[in-house]
Structures are given as structure tokens and as C-alpha cells.
Amino acid sequence: MNVLTQSQSRIDRAEIASIYHMPLLELIGRANGVHRAHHDPTDVQVCVLLSIKTGGCPEDCAYCSQAARYQTNVDSQGLMQVSDVLIAAQRAKASGATRFCMGAAWRQVRGGPQFDQVLEMIRTVNAEGLEVCCTLGMVTPEQASAMKQAGLYAYNHNLDTSAAHYDQVIQTRTYDDRLRTLDAVRNAGISVCCGGILGLGETDEDRIDLLNTLANLPEPPESVPVNALVAIEGTPLEGSPKVSVWSMLRMIATARIIMPTAMVRLSAGRLEMPESEQALCFLAGANSIFAGDKLLTTPNPSVDRDTAMLATLGLTPRRSSVSPAPVSSCDTAKPPGTSCCDGSAD
Ligand code: SAM
Ligand code: DTB
Ligand code: SF4
């Protein structure tokens, strides 16, 4: 069990900065070595996203198509029926995905019938043998435990950027709010998925700060999504310049070196990236993608195009680490990888 506290850093910021600023090809080479030492370099985890509740969100995240206060092209939709979620999960599984991530445009989870419905979705998707992930906004320790008991494998809750830059992007919640939810999820024994977005007007220093925070969480996240901003018309960040592949590579490679066992997910922004650029990201240590024609509200490369890309690159979708068994009664507060019922590290 890890006994580090947040004040004892596992790797210090200066070291992260010196890695981040290495000559780019040196950085990619080193990250590739770390990747090969900890992972099968031909393996890629394929995750599929589903927006189970879309739009109308009270938060003011400056990048988001789903914030009620911005005039975007997104049509709001209430919470989906469990039967429709099941159909989407089965389709995702048939396409080769092993992780199914359900996102809701909520500030926070509220108890009551809607939460019960989400718990039923978790049970249903888990029974299909998929790693179930949710991203629903802030949760309490009690809600996290209830989701764990229902079979939740991972919870996605991004820090997005540095603590210093956060209020330039989001004002309706604080960095500490975010950290509290991450604690609740971790303490419930759920795998933590936490990363950020490039292209929010942040500096290299902000990116290094974010990496420093992630790597020095009480336990580092099991998965780290690296998103390139999808600039949405109607949001304050519309018209933002495209994130360069060189920035994505620095972020991915540094994440790979400082969090060697994590899955590093090349997330939003792939539609704008030629396959040659995505290939560089895999060389730099990315080993997971979101597949499916849609992310939450924006388009993504088609499944056929991704299948062809993975075949060209000699990458193989990795097997699921969960089996379609009933949820075990083992719901103790142990992180995945150490739990008696989970069976495999992420
Ligand atoms: N409402 C929940 C929350 O904010 O945690 C869950 C859904 S939210 C859409 C999930 C994550 O998607 C955000 O934390 C952000 O990192 C990412 N995201 C949202 N809009 C994005 C965009 N336009 N470009 C890139 N990433 C985006
Ligand atoms: C993450 O880091 N990226 C995904 C997932 N976690 C939930 C979401 C990307 C959303 C991109 C914009 C959209 O489709 O609305
Ligand atoms: Fe709401 Fe999440 Fe979008 Fe922020 S990122 S506006 S919390 S849906």
C-alpha cells in the first residue's frame, strides 16, 4: 500500500520540467523505452464514450459544448434509458472496445431516482464484461462507494489544467473541489482516470504543474487522458488555435515517463490529427484511444478508419480485464490491481 501523502512528492517538479523540456526526439525515445519496459508496445486499449445525459450543465467550463450558458449546437437530452445504454454497450463490445465510459453533463451527482438509474446502468454494462467508467461530475464518498458496489471499474474526473490557470477556464468550481472527488473515488477503491486538455491558453509551466499534480496525487491515476481542445463554436474558447502535435507529444511522453504504469490515452482531438501524427503519439507512450464515431458531443474518426490505422501500425486492441461475472461482494476500499476481485492491474 502506498503511504505517500500529497505533501511528499514522488518526483519533484524540477525533474518533471527537465524531462518536459528535453530535445523532442530524445524525449520521445526515452518515453518509448519506459513504455516498452512497462507495457506491450503493440497493445492499445480501445474505449467507447456514451453521453448518457447531454447539455444543460450549470458549470461554466470555457471549452464545453454542454454548458447551458453558452449558445452551442448541442441539443439537450435527459438521462438515457438503461435499455438504450445496454444496446450502445453491446455495440461498443462488438466493435472491439473493452472500456465503456458514460458521461453526464452534471456539476455533481444527486441522490435519488436518477442516481439509481445510473447504478443500474453500471450493473448492466459490467454484466457485459466491459470495464465500466463514468464521468458524472463531483461525487461524495458515499456515492463513490455505491458505484463501486454496483461494479464501477473507473471514474474519469479531469483536472484539465494547472491550479494556477484553473480560474481562467472554470469559475463555478475550484481545483480543490476536483481533488476532493478524486479522493472519494480513490478511497472507494475505484480506478482513477484523470488528465487534462491542451489548448486552454495555458503555458508550458501550467502543463508541467498539471503533470506534477497528477504524478504526485496520493496515488497516481491508472489512466491519464490527454485531450487536445476541440474548439466549440459558441464557447469562450471558440476560434482557439489548433494544438500542435509537438505539444501533444511533449505532454504524452512526459506523462509516460513520470507515470510509467498508467494507461496514457490519446483522447479528444484525433479527428484533426493525421495518422502519422497519431503514430508518433503511440511511439511517445500513448496506449489507449477513444473510438467510435462520436466522443460525447463532437465527431471522432470512424471505427473503420481507426481499425485500418491500428492494423497499419501493428497495434492490437487489448483484452478486457474484467469478466462478465456478477459483481462480487468484495467492495473493500482497495484500488484496482490490489483488490481480491479485480484480478488485474490497469
Ligand atoms: N461533467 C463531467 C465533468 O466535467 O467532469 C463529465 C463530462 S466532461 C464533458 C468530461 C471531460 O471532457 C472534461 O473534464 C474535459 O476534460 C473533457 N472535454 C470536454 N469538452 C472538451 C473539449 N471541447 N475539448 C477537449 N476536451 C473536452
Ligand atoms: C476525457 O478526458 N475526454 C473525453 C472523456 N474523458 C469523457 C471527453 C472528450 C469530450 C470532447 C468534447 C465532446 O465530444 O463534447
Ligand atoms: Fe458541465 Fe462537465 Fe461540460 Fe463542465 S465539462 S460544462 S461540468 S459537462
Key phrases:
alpha/beta; TIM Barrel; 10 strands; 36% helix; 14% strand; disordered N terminus; binds S-adenosylmethionine; binds 6-(5-methyl-2-OXO-imidazolidin-4-yl)-hexanoic acid; binds iron/sulfur cluster
Describe the structure.
- With 346 residues, the chain is an alpha/beta fold.
- It has a single domain (13-314), classed as TIM Barrel (Alpha-Beta Barrel), CATH 3.20.20.70.
- Helix content is 36%, strand content 14%.
- The radius of gyration is 19 Å and the shape is globular.
- Residues 1-7 and 325-346 have low confidence and may be disordered.
- Bound molecules: S-adenosylmethionine (SAM), 6-(5-methyl-2-OXO-imidazolidin-4-yl)-hexanoic acid and iron/sulfur cluster.
- The site of S-adenosylmethionine (SAM) has 17 residues, from loops.
Quick structural summary:
The chain has 346 residues and is an alpha/beta fold.
Element layout with pairings:
Elements: H1 13-20, H2 24-38, E1 43-53, H3 82-94, E2 99-104, H4 113-127, E3 131-135, H5 141-150, E4 154-156, H6 166-169, H7 175-187, E5 191-193, E6 196-198, H8 204-215, E7 223-228, H9 245-258, E8 263-266, H10 275-283, E9 288-291, H11 303-313, E10 316-317
Parallel strand pairs: 1-2, 1-9, 1-10, 2-3, 3-4, 4-5, 6-7, 7-8, 8-9
Helix pairs in contact: 1-8, 2-9, 3-4, 5-7, 8-9
The chain binds S-adenosylmethionine, 6-(5-methyl-2-OXO-imidazolidin-4-yl)-hexanoic acid and iron/sulfur cluster.
